[in-house]
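Folding follows sequence. Below is one example:
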Amino acid sequence: MAVCALAEAPMQKKASPGYFRVMVGAFEVTALFDGGGEIDGKLLQAPPADVHSLVRKDLGDPQHIRGSVMGFLVNTGAKLILVDAGAGGHWGGPALGQLRSNLARAGYRPEQVDLILITHLHADHVGGVYTESGLRAFPNAEVRAAKEDSEFWLSAEIAGQAPKEAQEFFQIARNAAAPYRSARKWNPFSGAEPLAPGVRALPIRGHTPGHTGYEFTSNGETLLVWGDVVHVAAVQLPRPDIGIVYDVDGPSAIKARQQLFDDLAANATLIAGAHMPFPSLGRLRKEGAGYVWVPVIYGALH
């Protein structure tokens, strides 16, 4: 008796769309994947043996440390607020620049965004606010960032004194700001000021002169979008004292990270991390001298 073989099913080679959604009180929060790639462990300011040991402990490959770039969309019911806009195709190659397409997959359009809050003006956070032709990618949005960061990255004098490898970051920051400044939609702020109902800035200095997190609070629940507090979770969570070469003030960045970790873990605050593993939403748990990332669990929204 002949036996018929089952037809082979072709591989799909696709994953689900790059967004993830949770509720924080009455606020809808959508994590938007801009892309991912590898980060060189040599950029971390620690002996290579320490970095390798920590990455291996986390079951990673020290020669190929993976990282994500994220933005976060918060619908408060009154405003649609985007925190960081990804690289926009201006930096990082084709692996990055997916945020706007994932925004569309998540059911929103760029013209619906009212406010863009930038944690800092590095290319993978601000590049996505402008198009290839230099126009506003979010035509109705006001863009806000800390005054210290805006003044630093938009300064021709500081850029002129910066090393050659940093010039691209200054140029992208200027390109990003230009169309919004022309439209009077670029409005820096100072300190820990309220930016919208239920939204306030939280200075987290060190990584850049004006590096800022954003707190969203609704119905007694809080989310902190912390920007670049962490670049490599496998290393900097167990060892918050390890910095990265991109920090303009390494000691201040380390101090801010250590203080912030203590507070976030003690209060089980929900965190959105720009370079945490997708969906980049979770909480910290204290463990020994370090911390453990506890990711959010998928569930239906109510």
Remarks:
- The CA atoms of residues 13 and 95 lie 16 Å apart.
